[in-house]
């Protein structure tokens, strides 16, 4: 059985258990009716929500500054189970966040797409059945020019306008 959240930050482990979920569950019920495990599976593992953002004139701008706990190679959180205890401003990507603050999520975020009535893209691991497809399609943070927040003083110098953000 899916052991949430211990397996939630291990993409390979997560998708091995896909057969125990209802096929295309994300098309059959609204986001508000998903189980915790289904919610977690919807995350494509892109890592883009773990970029630091700044607000200027009521507009959210993404930077290329990654949270110190984001592994830039796997694009997964290294402290997922304890993230809210260790990082005070780590945001819970829950239904409330998705519906009320979609601007803090990238345009490609699966939750944001489904909330907009859109389909998951072909590179989403739930569609491709390959946890690496998000990286292979260039949709994750893998191989992007990132800097750790431990090395940055002025975030405004790091604003990026990548088309998928
Ligand atoms: S942006 Fe969305 S899909 Fe990507 S890692 Fe964050 S929650 Fe998951
Ligand atoms: S602590 Fe939060 S912001 Fe940092 S990598 Fe983990 S999930 Fe992302």
Summarize the structure.
The protein is built from 8 helices and 3 strands; from the N terminus they run αααββαααααβ. It is of the alpha+beta class and 165 residues long.
Give a structural overview:
The protein is α+β, with helices and mostly antiparallel strands. It has a domain at 11-50 and 67-141. It is built from eight helices and three strands, in the order αααββαααααβ. A three-stranded mixed sheet has the order 1-2-3, with no helix packed on it. The longest helix is centred in the N-terminal third of the chain and has 7 residues, at 36-42. The N and C termini lie far apart (34 Å). One iron/sulfur cluster binds at residues 43-49, 93, 105-106, 109-111.
Order of strands, main sheet, comes to: 1-2-3
Helix content: 10-25%
Q: What would you report as the Rg, rounded to the nearest angstrom?
A: 15 Å
Strand content: 5-15%
What is the chain-wise order of helices and strands? HHHEEHHHHHE
- The quaternary organization reads as single chain
Q: Provide the list of bound ligands, each named once.
A: iron/sulfur cluster
Shape descriptor: globular
Please render the helix and strand layout as text:
Blueprint: H1 11-16, H2 25-28, H3 36-42, E1 51-56, E2 59-66, H4 83-86, H5 95-100, H6 110-115, H7 125-128, H8 133-136, E3 147-148
Parallel strand pairs: 2-3
Antiparallel strand pairs: 1-2
The structure holds iron/sulfur cluster (2 copies).
Features:
165 residues; 3-stranded mixed beta sheet; alpha+beta; 8 helices; globular; binds iron/sulfur cluster
């Amino acid at each position: 059985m899916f052991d949430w959240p211990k397996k939630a930050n291990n993409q390979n482990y997560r998708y091995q258990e896909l057969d125990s979920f209802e096929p295309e569950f994300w098309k059959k019920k609204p986001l508000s009716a998903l189980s915790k495990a289904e919610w977690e599976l919807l995350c494509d593992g892109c890592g883009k929500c773990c970029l630091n953002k700044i607000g200027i004139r009521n507009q959210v701008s993404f930077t290329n500054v990654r949270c110190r706990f984001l592994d830039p190679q796997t694009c997964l959180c290294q402290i997922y189970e304890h993230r809210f205890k260790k990082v005070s401003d780590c945001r819970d990507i829950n239904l409330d966040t998705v519906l009320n603050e979609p601007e803090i999520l990238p345009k490609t975020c699966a939750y944001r797409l489904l909330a907009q009535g859109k389909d998951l893209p072909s590179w989403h691991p739930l569609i491709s059945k390959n946890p690496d497809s998000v990286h292979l399609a260039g949709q994750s943070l893998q191989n992007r020019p990132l800097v750790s927040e431990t090395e940055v003083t002025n975030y405004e110098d790091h604003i990026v306008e990548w088309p998928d953000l």
